[in-house]
Design brief:
heterodimer, A: elongated, B: 582 residues, mainly alpha, two-stranded antiparallel sheet, 21 helices
C-alpha cells in the first residue's frame, strides 16, 4: 500500500471501530447499567427491558457487532486492495 | 444404570478422545508447539477459543452466582462477553499481523525493551496461575461429588490428562482437543437447560423460556420468582442492589481484564491471516454466546426450583442430592427453631459464613456445625458453585444427564487449564530463556525447555489443586484487575499510538499494577473488616478498582511519553506494519 493509501485505510478502520464501540458502550454500560432502571419500567414479554439488556440483550448485540466488524473490514480490505492494482 | 458407573463411562470416553487427538496432533517444532503452525481454520479456532475462554468459572460457578445475585450478577455476563468485543476490535487482528508467539513478544518488541517484556511476563504468570487455581478447584469438586474419589486423586487424574496432551501436543494438540471439549461442554450445558426450560415453562429454548409464563399458571417466570423472593424477605431478583458506579467499574474491569487475558489473545496467533483472526473472533463469540445467554435462564430456573424443593420441607423428606452435597460440605442446615423443617431466608445462616463441620449428627440426621448460628431465620448454607452441577438432580432429570454435566464441567476446566499452562510454559521458555537470558539456544532446545516448563507448571497447578489456597475466591478479582491495569493498556497504546515510548509504557504498567494490587491486597488480605462501601475509593470495590488502575496506566504512559524521546523509526515502521493487513 502507498503511504497516502495506508493513511486513509487506517482512518477508515478507526471510524468503523469507533462506531461499533459506540454501540457496544450503549448496549452494555448504557442500557444494561446507566439507564437500566429507566428501561426496567418498560415490559418486554416477561422481562423488564433494562434487566433483559443486562442479562441477554447486550450479548446478542455483541455478537452482531463482531459480525458487522468482519463484514465491514473485509469490504474495506477489498476496496484498498482494488485501489492498489 | 448407576450414576457413578455412567459418570465413569462418560468422563472416561471423553478423556480417551482428548488423548487420542493429542497423539494424532503431536507438535514437532516450536512453531507448532506455540501457535499450532499458524494454520488453524477460523471455525475450529473459534471453537477452541470458546473452550479456552469458558472456564470452570463460566461452566460451574457463573449461573450459580447469578442465581443468588439476580440483576447484580449481570456484571459477569456483560463483562466477560463485552471484553471479547474489545479483544476482537482492538487487539486480535493487529496482534495476528504482528505474527509472533506470545503477548510479551509484542510488548517487548513494540517498546524495544527487555524490562517491558519482563514486566509483561511477570503479570502474565501471575494472572495465569491465579486462574489455574480456580480450574483445579472445579476439577476437585466434580471428581469428589460424581466419581466419589478423594479430591487429591481427582486432581492427579486431571493433571495426568492435561500433561499428556499439553506437553506432547503443545498448542497444536491443545487446539484440537479444545474443539472436542467445546462440543462436549456445550452439549452438556444445553441438554439439562432445555429439559428444565420445558419442565418449567414448556418452551424448549431456554433463552425464551426465561421470559415466558410458567406452565399452567398465568404468571411470568421472573414475576413469580420476584413474588416468592419478596415473600421470603429478599429483594426483587430483577432489581439491582449495588451502587451504579461500582457495577459500572466492575463491568469495566472484567471487560478490560478479559481482553488482556494472555491465553485467549494467543489463540489468535494460530490462524493463517488477519482476515481469519477477525472471522474466528466472530465464531468464538457466537459459540460463547450460546452458553452465556443460556446461563441467566439457568440461574432463574434453578433459584426457583431450589426454593420450591427446599423451603418449608422437612429435612427427612429432602431429596438425596441435598444430603450428598451436605456430605461433601457444600450445603449445611442448622435447625434454629427445632421444628425439623428447613427455613430459607435472607442473610447468612452461620458465622463465619462457611460451615465448619463437627463429626456429630443432629436428631434429624443433619451434620452439626461448630459455627455460631446467626440471629436471622435462615437455616441454610449453600455454596453457589453447586447450582449448575446440582441443577439436573434438583429437577429430577435422568442419570445420564447428570453424568453428562459432570463430563462437561471437566471439559471446561481442563481446556482452560491447558491453555493457561501453555501460556506459562511459552513465557518461560520463549520470553525468559530465549529472549532475555539465553538467546543462543536452538529451536530443538527451546522446544525441550517449553515441554519441561509445561510439565513444571502442571506440577505447581497440581499443588494448587491438592492444597487449594483459601484465597482462591479473593484472587480472582486480582487476575482481572491486574490484566486490566497492566497488560491491556500496554497493548492498546502499542497499537493505537505511535508516540507512547518505552519509558511511558513501563512506568504506566508498573504504576497501574502497583496501585491495583495494593488496593486489593489492603481490602482483601490486610483489613478485610474494612471492606465495605464507605471505605472504598469513590465507592469502587476491589473487584472494580482495575478500571482506576487502567486509567492511571494510560494517563502516566501518555504524559511521560510526551516529555521524553519518541520511539525510534524502526518502531514506527513496526506499528505501520501491524496496522495494515497482509
Amino acid at each position: 500500500m502507498k503511504m497516502n493509501n495506508s493513511k486513509n485505510y487506517w482512518r477508515a478502520n478507526l471510524k468503523i471501530v469507533l462506531i461499533l464501540l459506540f454501540f457496544w458502550f450503549l448496549s452494555s454500560f448504557g442500557a444494561g447499567i446507566l439507564f437500566s432502571d429507566l428501561l426496567d419500567k418498560i415490559k418486554f414479554g416477561g422481562f423488564n427491558l433494562g434487566f433483559w439488556f443486562a442479562q441477554q440483550g447486550s450479548i446478542f448485540i455483541f455478537v452482531f457487532l463482531i459480525v458487522a466488524y468482519c463484514i465491514l473490514m473485509n469490504k474495506l480490505d477489498r476496496k484498498y486492495r482494488a485501489g492498489k492494482d | 444404570m448407576d450414576l457413578q458407573i455412567l459418570t465413569y463411562l462418560m468422563a472416561g470416553a471423553s478423556f480417551a478422545l482428548y488423548i487420542g487427538i493429542a497423539v494424532w496432533s503431536k507438535a514437532s517444532s516450536t512453531n507448532e508447539f506455540y501457535v499450532a503452525g499458524g494454520g488453524v481454520h477460523p471455525v475450529a479456532n473459534g471453537m477452541a477459543t470458546a473452550a479456552d475462554w469458558m472456564s470452570a468459572a463460566s461452566f460451574i460457578s457463573m449461573a450459580g452466582i447469578i442465581s443468588f445475585m439476580g440483576k447484580d450478577g449481570s456484571v459477569y455476563l456483560m463483562g466477560w462477553t463485552g471484553g471479547y468485543v474489545l479483544l476482537a476490535l482492538l487487539l486480535a487482528p493487529y496482534l495476528r499481523k504482528f505474527g509472533k508467539f506470545t503477548v510479551p513478544d509484542f510488548i517487548g518488541d513494540r517498546y524495544y525493551s527487555k524490562l517491558a517484556r519482563f514486566v509483561a511476563v511477570l503479570c502474565l504468570i501471575f494472572v495465569s496461575f491465579t486462574y489455574i487455581a480456580g480450574q483445579m478447584r472445579g476439577v476437585g469438586i466434580v471428581f469428589s461429588r460424581f466419581l466419589e474419589v478423594d479430591i487429591n486423586t481427582g486432581v492427579i487424574i486431571g493433571m495426568a490428562i492435561v500433561f499428556i496432551y499439553a506437553v506432547l501436543g503443545g498448542m497444536k494438540g491443545i487446539t484440537y482437543t479444545q474443539v472436542a471439549q467445546y462440543c462436549v461442554l456445550i452439549f452438556a450445558y444445553m441438554v439439562p437447560a432445555i429439559f428444565i426450560s420445558i419442565l418449567i415453562t414448556g418452551n424448549p429454548v431456554p433463552q425464551l423460556g426465561f421470559g415466558s409464563k410458567i406452565i399452567s399458571e398465568d404468571i411470568y417466570l421472573l414475576d413469580k420468582l420476584n413474588n416468592i423472593l419478596n415473600d421470603l424477605g429478599f429483594s426483587n431478583y430483577t432489581d439491582s442492589t449495588k451502587s451504579k458506579i461500582d457495577v459500572f467499574c466492575i463491568t469495566g474491569a472484567l471487560m478490560a481484564g478479559t481482553a488482556g487475558l494472555p491465553h485467549v489473545i494467543v489463540r489468535f496467533f494460530t490462524v493463517p491471516k488477519v482476515r481469519d483472526a477477525r472471522a474466528s473472533a466472530g465464531w468464538a463469540l457466537l459459540f460463547i454466546a450460546i452458553l452465556y445467554t443460556t446461563a441467566p435462564a439457568v440461574s432463574s430456573f434453578s433459584r426457583l426450583n431450589f426454593i420450591n424443593t427446599i423451603n418449608n420441607s422437612s429435612y427427612e423428606s429432602t431429596p438425596v442430592w441435598f444430603k450428598n452435597w451436605e456430605n461433601i460440605g457444600l450445603i449445611s442446615w442448622s435447625d434454629k427453631n427445632d421444628d425439623g423443617i428447613i427455613q430459607y431466608a435472607p442473610g447468612n445462616s452461620l458465622n463465619p459464613i462457611k460451615p465448619i463441620f463437627s463429626n456429630q449428627r443432629g436428631e434429624n440426621g443433619e451434620r452439626i456445625v461448630s459455627n455460631e448460628l446467626t440471629k436471622n431465620k435462615n437455616e441454610v448454607y449453600i455454596d453457589r458453585d453447586i447450582m449448575v452441577l446440582a441443577n439436573p438432580e434438583i429437577a429430577n432429570l435422568p442419570n445420564w444427564v447428570i453424568a453428562l454435566v459432570a463430563s462437561g464441567a471437566l471439559a471446561a476446566a481442563l481446556s482452560t487449564a491447558a491453555g493457561l499452562l501453555l501460556v506459562i510454559s511459552s513465557s518461560i521458555s520463549h520470553d525468559l530463556m530465549k529472549k532475555i537470558f539465553r538467546p543462543s539456544i536452538t529451536d530443538k532446545q527451546e522446544l525441550f525447555l517449553a515441554r519441561l516448563s509445561a510439565a513444571l507448571a502442571i506440577g505447581v497447578a497440581g499443588i494448587f489443586g491438592i492444597y487449594p489456597p483459601a484465597f482462591v475466591a479473593q484472587v480472582v478479582a486480582f487476575a482481572f484487575g491486574l490484566a486490566a491495569s497492566s497488560i491491556f493498556p500496554a497493548l492498546i497504546m502499542g497499537i493505537f499510538s505511535k508516540r507512547v515510548n518505552s519509558s511511558g509504557a513501563i512506568i504506566g504498567m508498573i504504576s497501574g499494577l502497583l496501585f491495583t494490587s495494593s488496593y486489593i491486597i489492603f481490602f482483601k488480605f490486610i483489613s478485610p473488616d474494612l471492606n465495605f462501601s464507605e471505605n472504598w475509593f469513590l465507592g469502587i470495590s476491589p473487584e472494580g478498582i482495575g478500571v482506576v488502575g487502567m486509567i492511571i496506566n494510560f494517563t502516566l504512559a501518555v504524559l511521560i511519553s510526551f516529555f521524553t524521546k519518541p520511539p525510534p523509526n524502526h518502531i514506527i515502521r513496526l506499528i505501520d506494519n501491524v496496522r495494515t493487513p497482509e
